[in-house]
Amino acid sequence: MKLSQNLKENIKILKKDFSCCDDVVFREFFSGDGEKRSCVLIYSDGMCDKDLLSDRVIKRLIPGEYSYPENIKRPPDEDSPKVSMNVVDYDIGYDTSEVSSAVMAGNGALLVDGERFFINITATKFSSRAISEPKSKGVIRGPRDGFTENFLDSTSLLRRRLKTSDFKMEFLNAGNVAKTRIAVCYLDGEADKDRLSLIRSRIRNINADMIIDSGQLQNIITASNGIIPDIQSSERVDDAVFAINEGKIVLLVENSPFVLIIPGLLLSMLTSSEDYYSSSVKRNAILFLRIISCVITVLLPAVYIGFIKFTPDFLPDKIILMLSMARRNVALPAFIEILFMQLVFEVIMEAAMRLPGQIASTVGIVGSIVVGQAIVDANLVNIMVVIIVSLNAILTFVIPSFELSKTLRIIRLGFMVISAAFGMYGVSVAFAVMMIYLSDMESFGAEFLFPFVERNVRRKNGA
């Protein structure tokens, strides 16, 4: 609804819109010593800088005459003085819905009797978490600052490192009810233009009431419907900076400490920001270690089940004797045995993640040692299964990307089922099919296995 020249009518409409919003303040006052004009300043308590609104708006308007902002066109026969408010950033709105959006964003909305517009004064200020070291990706060498839930703090962390006008930030809004700000960050001339247009289009076409976190945005705009992620997430600033420098696109979401990196490639998910500070020889050696860890954590339980159930003759005699001695008192089949132990460790890991830090370490130690030993003593599983599952748990933490590690845990379960049904032949065929699928998989126009797989001759950075 358009604002009218009657201030009381506007206040009545806006108070109805803000009904039961006790944090929204309507500060009414008069401007001018002579012919006084009624004014109202609307803001959300706790979301804005009340000192700024008081000192630079109210205290300047009460003793002096109200004046129009310079960008408002007056009739030629009327003289319009310069703006008397001492504020840096403001704009003009003409609709009651714009007033609601401004107040809910933490700004101040100034309405004056006789005017059909309001002045949107930028005065956002609310408490937020201090910039600290990210907990999801620890490094020994590298910067210690990470993104926070404060949108402007996060954008400033990127701008502080990318001090060039080629670094672009485009602000978009998503959510039909809560207009969540999303910053599309990229290097002009390096980022793929078609990919940029695709991302802008998907963000603008989001049909959701609100976007609470970047994970929700990731699920909406993702191009893949499978379990393998095609968008990388990180809360490390240097991860985002290196990605932007490579021509990728980074999405910053308001109220989320995690940014989205597009395209999300397997190589980038296996690379830690700390690798960029090491020599190429060390970096490639660590990368090879992580690739081997991925293969082992996916195939090791399936290989164990396949050899035990179908082809034990392929194993050396000493290994067969060792496995026979370990399983002599275990009545469960190999598949049920390792599936049960895998489930126990997954529950322990999930519980340790949800508990406070000090309790989590205790639960991890008690669960992995005491419970594991008790299960072995009860002859529910043999010691080899405990070794395999424990090794898998350790190998999972070698992978820098938590989303990729969760994906590998699901794929591992699928290979276990295939191995129990078809043996090593089924595992070999399933692994070949998975590699073919990954070779054909794309992330926003880029090969998921790039640079290991590259179908096109001409490529852009970040693809």
3D architecture notes:
With 463 residues, the chain is of the alpha+beta class. It folds into three domains: 7-121, no CATH class; 151-264, no CATH class; 276-443, no CATH class. It has helices at residues 7-17, 50-61, 96-104, 151-161, 193-204, 214-221, 237-245, 266-269, 280-309, 317-326, 334-354, 357-377, 383-396, 402-440, and strands spanning 24-31, 37-44, 90-93, 108-112, 118-121, 167-174, 180-187, 232-234, 249-253, 259-262, 442-443, 446-447. A hairpin with a 5-residue loop joins β1 and β2. It starts with 6 loop residues before the first helix and ends in a 16-residue tail after the last strand.
Summarize the structure.
Helix content is 46%, strand content 13%. With 463 residues, it is an alpha+beta fold.
Helix/strand layout:
Blueprint lengths: L6 H11 L6 E8 L5 E8 L5 H12 L28 E4 L2 H9 L3 E5 L5 E4 L29 H11 L5 E8 L5 E8 L5 H12 L9 H8 L10 E3 L2 H9 L3 E5 L5 E4 L3 H4 L10 H30 L7 H10 L7 H21 L2 H21 L5 H14 L5 H39 L1 E2 L2 E2 L16
Antiparallel strand pairs: 1-2, 2-4, 3-5, 4-5, 6-7, 7-9, 8-10, 9-10, 11-12
Helix pairs in contact: 9-13, 9-14, 11-12, 11-13
Features:
alpha+beta; 3 domains; 463 residues; 13% strand; five-stranded antiparallel β-sheet; single chain; disordered C terminus
